Amino acid sequence: MSTAGGVVKAFERGAAMECESLQIFVKSPNQWRAKPLAEADVAAFREQHAASGLPVVAHAAYLINLASPKEDVLAASLTGLADELDCCDALGLAGLVVHPGGHLGSGVEAGIESIARSIDAIMAAREQGSTTLLLENTAGQGTSLGATFEQLAWLLTRLQAPDRLGVCFDTAHAHAAGYDLRSPDAYHDTWQRFDATIGLQHLGCIHLNDSKRELGSRVDRHEQLGQGAIGVQAFRLLMNDARLRHVPMILETPKGEEMLEDVHNLALLRSLRED
């Protein structure tokens, strides 16, 4: 949900869509720097958050790359992510979703080690932080890391503060990375692998997106639910999986200014519920 006009506006816009959970940006996703949150905005947000009872997560800026071999980009990423976590703490958000990063040619091992060192440094400098950092699985496009459950699990076990880390599962990214959700058997197998490798207890939120591209394409292109290569059945299974009832689910499908696509996608998801 947009926070144009103030972060608290997300609740008004979410209510118009009858949202049951929200995701926001605490600053522009395409800029390194942003103005500090005003105390009045923080107070208004916390009041509305408490009144709504909705789970709210934020998504970190797309510029952040914790695996970058470029010193200036890595330094800016560390500062930027720490700043966003501070904003999330101020607002009382449960989680901040971040893409792990891309190694840009330095290699998988060097890139994933850089991610671990970066997160350790950020968490060590803010021991009183309360917001969980949620590493999002990726499509594996280009040199991006985090496309496999094994890489995400390695990070969770390698980090010095694993209790402050979790995972965000994106359906379109999983599909592009080769994890099939389209049939009951494939769905069961994918989540069984997730639980065995990462652990469902580490799942902080789910991004519900169909995919424009085929299974295992390694291409990150979101599509409206039921109109892509994943199809409706996967979302029916997700909506009726008792293990995921407590997990906030977020739409990141393409949308226009009127958000009519969100209205349609939410109606579809609710129609799939069997209870």
Describe this structure in words.
- This protein has 275 residues and is of the alpha/beta class.
- It has one domain (9-272): Alpha-Beta Barrel (TIM Barrel).
- It contains nine helices and nine strands.
- The strands form two sheets. A seven-stranded parallel beta sheet has the order 1-2-3-4-5-6-9. Strands 7-8 form a two-stranded antiparallel sheet.
- Helix 5 (149-158) links the parallel strand 4 and strand 5 (165-170).
- Helix 3 packs across helix 4.
- The longest helix is centred in the first third of the chain and has 21 residues, at 71-91.
Topology diagram in text:
Elements: H1 9-16, E1 22-24, H2 39-52, E2 56-59, H3 71-91, E3 95-98, H4 108-124, E4 132-136, H5 149-158, E5 165-170, H6 171-177, H7 184-197, E6 203-208, E7 210-211, E8 222-223, H8 232-239, E9 249-251, H9 260-272
Parallel strand pairs: 1-2, 2-3, 3-4, 4-5, 5-6, 6-9
Antiparallel strand pairs: 7-8
Helix pairs in contact: 3-4
